Amino acid sequence: LLQHLEHRLAELQRLKSASADADDHGSVDEVHEADVAHDIAAQLASISITNNLSLSLFQGSAILPHKSKLFYPSERPPLKIPVRGIYHEVNPRTAGEAYASQFSSFNSQHVPLNVMERLFRNYTEEIFPRFPCFSEAELAYHFNHACIDSAEPGLFRVQDALSRFVISMTMAISALNSKNQDFRKVAALSEALHTDAMKYVDELLQECSISALQCLILLIQLALLLPQTSNLWYLAGEAMRLAVSLGLHQEPEPRIFRDRAHAEQRRRIFWVVYQLDRIVSISGGCPVALSDEHITTRLPYDIGDVSDLVEGADSKRVSNPKERQFLLDLQVCIMKSEIQATQFFDRPVPSQLGSHDDWVQQMDLRTQNLSHGVSAHVNPHSSLVASYHQCQIMLHRPCSRNIAVSEASLVSVVKAAVELISLDGKAAESGGIVMVFEIGNRIFQAGMLLLYALRNHATKLQRASLADIATASLKSLSVLLNNLSSRWPPLSDTASYINELIETNLRNPLGHNGSHYDMQVLEELDCLVTQRRIHSIRHRNIPFPPPKKPTPSPSEPENIGRDFLKDEQWWTDFIDQDFVTNESCFSLPSGGGQTASSPSSEPNETRAERGRDTMGNNACDLERELDVILDAIPSCSFCRDRRTKCQRQLPACKECARTSRECLIFDPILKANVPLRRVELLIEELKVLAKQIPSPARSSSNTQQPPASGNPLFLPLQRGASPLSEAVACISLSSTVFFGPWSSLGCLRDQLQHKASYKLPTTVRTAMRNTIPTLSFQSLISFQPLPESLAAPIFNLFSRSINTFFPIFQPQTLDIILIAYYHPNATPSRPHNTPLFNLIIALGAQISSKTTPSLFALAEHHFQNAVSSLPTTCAHASRTENVSLLQRTLLICVYTLLEPRAGDVWRHLGFAIRLFLDLSHRPSMEEDEDHGVFCMLTRTLYTLESHVSIAFGRPSLLVIGDDLRRELVEKSGNSLQDEISISSYQVSLLKMQIHSTILNRGGNISVIHETQPLREMCETYRQSLDSWFARWREIVSPTSSASATPSSTPQSHVLKETLLSWGSLHYHHGMSLITTLWPTPGGDPSTICGGVSNAGLQLVRHQQLFANLTCEGAPSGEGDVVVFPCEWTMAHLVLQVGLRAMGEKDKSVVGGKNEDPSLALCFSLLLLLEADDSKLLRGLSPVFERLSANVSL
């Protein structure tokens, strides 16, 4: 009874908090005062984080570790399937290779100034409005500095490199708008300018900053036009990962970003990255880098929320036609993103629509309304019309959700595919800016659907008089792909593949059994149509065709002087006659760009109509519920013992009131007597709260609901940039590190908001003034070659710590690496891998440095050696090399997690995820050989991403359309490493799913009274977590007592303690996440705080006791003592649960009547962790102590 009442009270308090926050959000004044709590939290975080969390990929090294992947040519369609051609080209073909030799020593300084001005003006007028990632002042500054006054003395070198990069890239992009008949020459010029810009890319992309993101955007823009310059899959993922790190996916709070121009520019940059990511992902049928549900950033140009644009916001209030065009492009992009997520990535259909068919009808109506609006005012040959047809194809095509489409849908798909191929053909013929990556991929998909329809549904097409039209369109598709190959040479292979499919289809009509190879090709066609994102088993059954013979390098064109670049007339003709104006896909629509917004296709339902649930959130419902509860109150203990009838009144029955005794009832859950006076107090509080919470009808007037609790923290970046000139300062955007609403620093901000008069402790203020960057003494130490006698125990420690909880290598592989390094001539010969050896030594020494501090310098030294010796190339076609690259990247991720000063773990993990997805969707003949290793690496990747994304409070790509994978929970053996790896993957995926739901609810709460589905979801999560923990405890007991009982075997006892503490830490972390969504039985913040603190203390003690190189090995059969590598995400988890427990009840750590032992335990652990700078807690313990001590302010 008592637990139920307390649980209901917590629910009503949550609803009241959400309602109050919504009311506050609805009344926003134009003038915003500073958020004092955010500013204080940022100051506190700067002590522990600014100098101890790297903002660069590698601190102190301008190295791009995955450059070989970022700038390898984009793959032509079919994206992940090897067909008759070389899947990865050793010497990639380029559009301008015929003139490459003439541009070999060319750079941007060789372009005449008047040509620079014309190219720059063309970019700002024709291309910049589509991707407004800079302010006009920024672009003007970069142009003036790079082209006019580049010799200005005293300017910071990085800013000089940035200006040269920006102008070289803008000219490379703008040059492709030329209608020069010889496109090869224009492409060669653009490629030369790109090569010139690439000289600065390593240092510019190192830092996590707005300027680095702007550079990535320029690289993606060019790669959409010349896909051989960069790999769009990796670049787009890097850009979105960087945008999330900077917090651009979250709406800039007016009290934090008080400069409206700054906030507006953040919005523009984010939505540009969003569009580019969607173009790349939708073109290739790949997962997007950020789910729509996790975006709260409002639209630029004062339009409002995304829902306003989707549901028909009036864009006419935007006076600038270029801005209206940007919003219209964005509206189409958002629609395509929703269709892609629902059709191919299992996004649930909105509950108010009911079925998938209802959703398809609604989306169909929206796309048609959009098409009517576009056709009325826009050139019908524009890219927007083509995007409409692409929406139709995605909406009605066969997919995993609906493989057998209706005849009406099939006809719609065929009509849209025919129109799309025709429109894109006209766009390619017009010249100028042609987004060949997007066009090439979408017309390939259109061709696949036409072939599929002609083969499997010819009768239906004949009834609709479409069979001949579809056949003719396929022929024109092959011609179009060959024409586009002048811009993207590998498309000629795609054209050959289309022709092969057509010929194979003609040879083998439906029902005819042709050759084995023909049948496999036709099966591949079905797979391409119905499972475009899934790595099908069928892929592995198609043998690799023999590689093509390398084609001879093209001969140079005849009658062309080698000095034409010095010919002023050529440059004059180039800028005066050859540029496309208002005809390209980037250009403004004719007719002034007036567009008709699409009306909402469904009636405006009130939130009360959509969101009422059975719980009842008003006083009347609560009264009825309490009546039932009061009727169920048992007899009090006094009356029961005397066997007399109890009146069961509150706060005491008649007999207890008469005798002035405490009236108690027995609670079977608590197994203790509970005073009825406590029950009465809870009921009175419930009644008061029920009256304070607005009814659903009243709350439905709020058009935008903020999260129920939690506020993000934007930590300004003050490190890594030298002071710039005033001219630069006035146009540069400041960058921020983003910590999400439910991160530890977000919880700190929440606590400070309730302490309006809070002042920083004097010691903390003094530390802030005296904080200097952490110094590295590695360069002062001379290192001798590491002897094998020291390397062996370091490898052993790595094996029983890192490789146990984050397994990357199989045990025998570690032995091979060690032997190959010290005995290269041993038989059998082993491949020598110095970077892997150095990384393992660095990680082992890093763990041991917690007990032997002198080893920290050794760890730092070997990590720097590993970074400096990283391979700059990759055999892209070799699965073995790609798996090795994934292993190397995961080692770097673990090191930067343990030592955050060394590098940016968020971006390294982002690349590892992209590489994993690439390998998952890529067929290979070597898959069976490394299947076990790849599954192990996948589980480790999920574990690391869970730690990092939840600690930062940022959304993760890994949970988009994902579920528990059967092959990842299958054991390859009975080792402890396998058990930990599988269990870690299971709980990590579950925690990321809960965290994703939290972020989704926080950014898109439509109604705070929709409690029933949320309660059921939380109950499902809790049951999954309980079953996981129960299974883990069953695993641990036999594992730890395999050879003897824990009492008689000390090492078995220690192993059991470590493993149980590890499981308990994950369990209570999961419970903390669930209670963030909704109050959950057993999820009391104090209980969670105690559970996390107990488990954390145990793990930290074991690390200090057993993470040393002299720890005695275990006797045979008992297993080594494992060491959990405690890192900063665990430390911040401790801080987070402590702050949440403190916020729930006003208790003190020391002294006072209501002392909470869980907070005392938490404070002790924080003190222990704070001593290590790598835990990112420095200076936070006195703040925690003062907040928890309930100081009178």
From TrEMBL:
<dbReference type="GO" id="GO:0043565">
    <property type="term" value="F:sequence-specific DNA binding"/>
</dbReference>
<keyword id="KW-0539">Nucleus</keyword>
<dbReference type="Pfam" id="PF00172">
    <property type="entry name" value="Zn_clus"/>
</dbReference>
<dbReference type="InterPro" id="IPR001138">
    <property type="entry name" value="Zn2Cys6_DnaBD"/>
</dbReference>
<keyword id="KW-0862">Zinc</keyword>
<dbReference type="InterPro" id="IPR036864">
    <property type="entry name" value="Zn2-C6_fun-type_DNA-bd_sf"/>
</dbReference>
<feature type="region of interest" description="Disordered">
    <location>
        <begin position="588"/>
        <end position="616"/>
    </location>
</feature>
<dbReference type="GO" id="GO:0008270">
    <property type="term" value="F:zinc ion binding"/>
</dbReference>
<feature type="compositionally biased region" description="Pro residues">
    <location>
        <begin position="543"/>
        <end position="555"/>
    </location>
</feature>
<dbReference type="Pfam" id="PF04082">
    <property type="entry name" value="Fungal_trans"/>
</dbReference>
<keyword id="KW-0804">Transcription</keyword>
<protein>
    <recommendedName>
        <fullName>Zn(2)-C6 fungal-type domain-containing protein</fullName>
    </recommendedName>
</protein>
<feature type="region of interest" description="Disordered">
    <location>
        <begin position="539"/>
        <end position="561"/>
    </location>
</feature>
<keyword id="KW-0238">DNA-binding</keyword>
<feature type="domain" description="Zn(2)-C6 fungal-type">
    <location>
        <begin position="635"/>
        <end position="665"/>
    </location>
</feature>
<keyword id="KW-0805">Transcription regulation</keyword>
<dbReference type="InterPro" id="IPR052202">
    <property type="entry name" value="Yeast_MetPath_Reg"/>
</dbReference>
<dbReference type="GO" id="GO:0045944">
    <property type="term" value="P:positive regulation of transcription by RNA polymerase II"/>
</dbReference>
<dbReference type="GO" id="GO:0000981">
    <property type="term" value="F:DNA-binding transcription factor activity, RNA polymerase II-specific"/>
</dbReference>
<keyword id="KW-0479">Metal-binding</keyword>
<dbReference type="GO" id="GO:0006351">
    <property type="term" value="P:DNA-templated transcription"/>
</dbReference>
<dbReference type="GO" id="GO:0005634">
    <property type="term" value="C:nucleus"/>
</dbReference>
<dbReference type="InterPro" id="IPR007219">
    <property type="entry name" value="XnlR_reg_dom"/>
</dbReference>
<feature type="compositionally biased region" description="Basic and acidic residues">
    <location>
        <begin position="604"/>
        <end position="613"/>
    </location>
</feature>
